[in-house]
Amino acid sequence: MPSIAQQKGLPDEPSHCITYFDNGQINWSTGKIIAKGNASPEDNKEDSHGMVPGAARADASRKIIEILKKIKIYNQLAVGEYASKNDVIMAGIEKTAWDADIKKQYYSSALAVEIIIEASIFGGFLQLVLPEEIRQIEKINPDLPANTVNQVEQNLYTGLVIDARQLSFEPVLYPVIISEKANEIYSSVFISREYAVQNGVCQYLCHMDQALKSKRIGNNPLIFKGLRKEGESNSTIVISLADAQILEKQTERHTFLKECRVIIVVDQ
């Protein structure tokens, strides 16, 4: 049976976490948004045929904008709602769509055009929509000699993996992780905006083996199981008190959390 992507005529990435829309998809594993646009000649006049590719591209760009506006930032706050009263953010959303790359373009025998374009949520888009409380964290640790760093890093944890399968956790731009005592384990306090904008607050994957092979969390990540969501529509994951205490004992957590070296494994 064809996959959802194949049914919609979109690129198929079976191992990635993808949310599908009527007009396209967002790949949470890569941060890519893909939309398909269509257009056909309005009449039989020769000069109308040359306008069809541009019309198809405009159709796809509008669909990218629609998808961007539907993305949840946290809880139930969607990008469209957040940007509705801010012309600068709306203009940035539109720019993200119009800057999208053309991946494929097809012509039918009737001179109709179908086009697939791809945009990224990383960079300018995230800079616009991530909460202001995620700020730049300056480097505070002194530089150490290279040989000392190599010796120390051999035993350090390099990232964090949260197993949120079975929680029906839906990806958002700004997830938060807390302990059973409601202490924040991963939130704006720990995240440096530079890294969040460049790579996302976290990466979402749908297979644990895929997560463990990711360069994002390095060779020695901590792996914790998500116990539950904090509320049905919330974007907060609760981990056990024991796991939270293990994390808090690792001084290197300040580095890998700051750099957003976090993966959340969710249901496919």
Topology:
Blueprint: H1 4-8, E1 18-21, E2 24-27, E3 32-39, H2 46-49, H3 52-70, E4 72-74, E5 77-78, H4 79-83, H5 87-98, E6 101-107, E7 113-120, H6 124-129, H7 146-153, E8 159-163, E9 176-179, E10 184-186, H8 193-199, E11 203-205, H9 208-212, E12 221-229, E13 236-239, H10 241-248, H11 253-258, E14 262-265
Parallel strand pairs: 8-12, 8-14, 9-13, 11-14
Antiparallel strand pairs: 1-2, 2-3, 3-7, 4-5, 6-7, 9-10, 12-13
Summarize the entry for a quick read.
The chain is α/β, with parallel strands linked by helices and 268 residues long. It has 11 helices and 14 strands. It folds into 2 domains: 4-129, no CATH class; 146-265, no CATH class.
Global outline: elongated
What gyration radius follows from the Cα positions, in whole Å?
Answer: 21 Å
| Oligomeric description of these chains | single chain
Mean pLDDT: 88
Strand content: 25-35%
Number of helices, where a helix is a run of at least 4 consecutive DSSP H or I residues: 11
Based on helices, strands and strand pairing, what is the structural class?
alpha/beta
Largest sheet: 7 strands, mixed
Number of domain units: 2
Strand order of the largest sheet: 10-9-13-12-8-14-11
Q: Element order, helices and strands?
A: HEEEHHEEHHEEHHEEEHEHEEHHE
Number of strands: 14
Question: Which stretches of 5+ consecutive residues score pLDDT under 50?
Answer: none
